[in-house]
Amino acid sequence: MLRKPLGEKINAVRARKKQRLPVVLSKEEVSRLLKAMSGVHELMAQLMYGCGLRVMEVLRLRVQELDFDQGLLLVRRGKGDKDRSTILLPELHVPLKDHVIFVRKLYEQDVENGTCNVYLPHALAQKYRGGPRAWNWQYVFASKSLSVDPRAGVRRRHHMDESSIQKSVVHAACLV
Prior knowledge:
38% of the residues lie in helices and 8% in strands. It is mostly helical. It has a single domain (27-175), classed as hpI Integrase, Chain A (Orthogonal Bundle), CATH 1.10.443. The strands form two sheets. It has a three-stranded antiparallel beta sheet, with no helix packed on it.
């Protein structure tokens, strides 16, 4: 800054990063936490725990990524923008199928109202012209309300907000 040379070499020592241990719940704690939850948030938490999904992976699940026959769940654009498959627990088949039936009714209402539209990533909307209105591209955990997509200015149904599941887990943890 003052354009004066430093008289001697500086041997700076970097500060050490603190190593933090991850918080891991026991099976009993997880069981109590899941029992304290209810409804769609309980199902989402069961998928996260039982299938090893992250919050956004659960929220971004599409109907076509559920394979009940083979007991698989496809995860698209997961961490590192990678795709993978994981086991869909048999215990979750019935509640998940029931939830998909509920989402199907929501989808059919959107079709009747002419508001059926869902976001497709990258250039898939151009590749699959009918994709945003197709059943298989709909979110499994769709939002209850329609919203305007700020990128396209189009009114569509997006997935649920991530804060809803996070708040539900925090609330359940307070009850346990």
